[in-house]
Amino acid sequence: MTGMLALRKARKKLRMGTICSPNSGGTKTEEVCNADWMGSLPPRLSTFPLSNLAIPGSHDSFSYWVDEKSPVGPDQTPAIKRLARISFVKKLMKKWSVTQNLTFREQLEAGIRYFDLRVSSKPGDADREIYFIHGLFGIKVWDGLMEINSFLTQHPKEVVFLDFNHFYAMDDAHHEYLIQRIQEAFGTKLFPSERVENVTLSTLWEKKCQVLIFYHSPLSMKYPFLWPGHRIPAPWANTTCVRKLILFLETTLGERAPHGFFHVSQAILTPRVKTIARGLVGGLKNTLVHRNLPVILNWVKTQKPGVLGVNIITSDFVDLVDFATTVIELNNLLLQGDRALAKC
Q1: Which biological process, per GO, is one annotated for this protein (predicted)?
Q2: Any catalytic annotation for residue 59?
């Protein structure tokens, strides 16, 4: 009986009970605040490799704000750059470039622990400053890193994955500058590249490390605190059809390597040119995301973490449904063996 009560208390710890900070609209969100969910996991789960836990992430994590007044990014085609000379085109681009409503801090408070990051230098900048990019330029990378670091300092048992997976208009000098800024921002919080199976919350807490940086560039080999990008594969369905997306997610999970890698399930739909043309004014959220997110969330609810199960799951507009909490609660399934023993 005592064992059963302990397990029930452990499961309740996966549900935080406080309201998060005000959202970008200035009103209180009713989302459950998951600011300390990793530190509140049942103790046994802190010994599991992070590659075996269910971890919520966001797609194009930085795109809650993009600058309509900046040049069009180097990630766009010459045709788009020419069109963007027309004044209203950038306003329409913004509707399709923004994939999140929440700032980094708000995402962290909601429980997001994996961040999908695309970065670029900006034409005309005299210095080597690096910005986030998704069609249009976002905030400076340095500002985002400092926001994340501030949260981590206040929540010492939380761990984040920062996945720098696309680089635009960056030469070696830009890379060296960015890597230096990453080191300055996080210092001793950086966890060096290691056998994936050795990366547990218990190990990270013992070493007082909170940040895993994945850097999809050969330069990752020069710095012990950079993890090579291939250690965190993130297969991309590249479809507008939610049925095809779910089939793809199932197929790629079935092909997941059992050891040596993390795994990202990108539970996102990608607009095609004709999708954008049809929903030009509505934008990504109203055209693709709103109507399909409940179906995607239902797929998430059927998953189980573990060696060959889901690991990191990413979504657009993570605040529109109870995405982060749904992913976090999948970790309860890892305790099922304990629950069965407690009944004996």
Answers
A1: lipid catabolic process
A2: yes
